[in-house]
Amino acid sequence: MQVAAERTVVAPTSQVGAQRLRTTDLPRLAARYPRVALFGAIILLLILIGIFAPLLAQYDPIQTAPTHVLEQPSPSHILGTDNVGRDQFTRVIYGTRISLGVAVIAVTIALSGGVLMGLAAGYVGGATDQVLSRLIDALLAFPGVLLAIAVTSALGPSLRNAMIAVGIIQIPLYFRLTRGQVLQAREHEYVVAAAVIGATHVRILARHIVPNIANPLIVAASISSSTSILALAALGFIGVGPQPPDPDWGSMINTASGALSQAPWLSFGPGIAIFLTVFSFSMLGDALRDALDPRLRIN
Amino acid sequence: MVPVAFLASVMLFILLKLTPGDPVLILLGERATAQNYEALRHDLGLDQPYPVQYLAWVGHVAQGDFGKSLRNGAPVKGEIQSRLPATLQLGVTALLLGVVVALPLGVLSAVFRRSPLGFFASAFSQVGVAIPGFFVGLVLIYVFALQLRWFPPGSYTSFTDNPAEWFKRLVLPAITLSLFGAATQTRFIRSGLLDTLHQDYIRTARAKGFSDAAVILGHALRNALIPSITLLGLQVGAILEGAFIVESVFAWPGIGRLAVQSLGARDYPIVQAVVLLAVFVFLTANLLVDIAYAYLDPRISYTRQRA
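Structure tokens for the assembled complex are given below, as produced in the milestone run.
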């Protein structure tokens, strides 16, 4: 009876795996989930821009040119040049690498830390849950960016430390999500059934619980990519993130703010770039949530 | 609340200890010899075990003693006290402004969901959370201060000196700082109201013949607002974060700008005192939210109930 219960619940998952997604299915999927397709495409484009930055930008993002300081936008410098004569368009293009790189690494830190702790807290329960939950509450006592500032000021300002800090401040998001989902999943018949037929704890977690909480985690990853990029921009702007001469959007806006009256156009490139990236990730997250969880598709 | 505050303070203490630079060497500077190094280290209590140092630190902090600035040796407490009023004025104005904008926008967008207004409100809430505050601040300075010359580009005048000038200087930074909160709050009020409008008691109220306005404002909104009270606590956090950035953009002499300047000068005692203060304010705000919550929704009780 219990074995049968596990079969029926697990079966649909394996069927989905059997239906291999073909490239010919993509237009149909895109038509069904237009927002996922649109914002997914924008993010794919941003990734490609980051990868092919040297082909898209004709100048060097670091090399200064003292004879071309604060030039107005022109055909050769479409976003003008910054306070040390570098082409602003080139730096915005290269900045994509930093922002997306930070998003990937910070989300990886937050996801792995938060999910592991969340699984432990939700599955083991008891004292483990108490200790981990209080620890996460303590992290939540800090307004996120302030914790990142405190962490980077302790570790020293650098791109690497900014990534770590931005990752740490998002651990609570994944922890709470995972813990809550595990607490629910634990009570489900298929988990009880798996335990009855002698599955190990690791197997129950890996084969039965994690696959069932994957969807909300995918949504969270998209949304927290947007938060990561915004937080990094803030750190860069106040000077504790990536250090000069790295082409980081936040610190570029800081530079632009110093030349606001002479070169007001300078902040537009990085400003729009941050907005577009953050907006696309957060909209993709929303769209994925609607697509992956039909129960939420009410309004 | 108590274990959370304890763990948060331990975290901050660990960060304090990880901070690069030996405070004894920094304080002694050129005059450092092996002998007076050990003497000062002992005087500062830095030769004690970490748990003892932690207790001493908590004791000092509880009395408002945040140590001395590494830059000029002035007590951190005084530096913070002199800048706190400016931050409070800006933060409270931004918090109120956010609510004042979000409340009508959220309600109207839920009620007229399919109208251009509804579209505008949801666009505002999506864009407002994705756009960095410092970029908005720069655009506002450029348009309204440098081009139109309606407002000064930054800095602060105290209210008692010149109320009109105080207001003019407050407008742009307050708008910038309120944007994020207004956007999230609009979204929350909108979705909260949309949820409540489907409830049975709303249909009952309509069936009894109440007007639309009475139903929405009297019945639906009161319940829809409860979740957005929670958001208010989080918004205090967003405003504390935003203060660091917005004060820097507008040369607003508050604790956020003080902290950013101190970061640049590696003056960590000031940075950590400001962060500590922010954590304290944030925790207090969330405690108040929890209390308000129980007051507004009689179904919520924090005393243990039978299962």
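Chain B has twelve helices and no strands. The mean pLDDT of chain B is 85. Further analysis is deferred to the final report.
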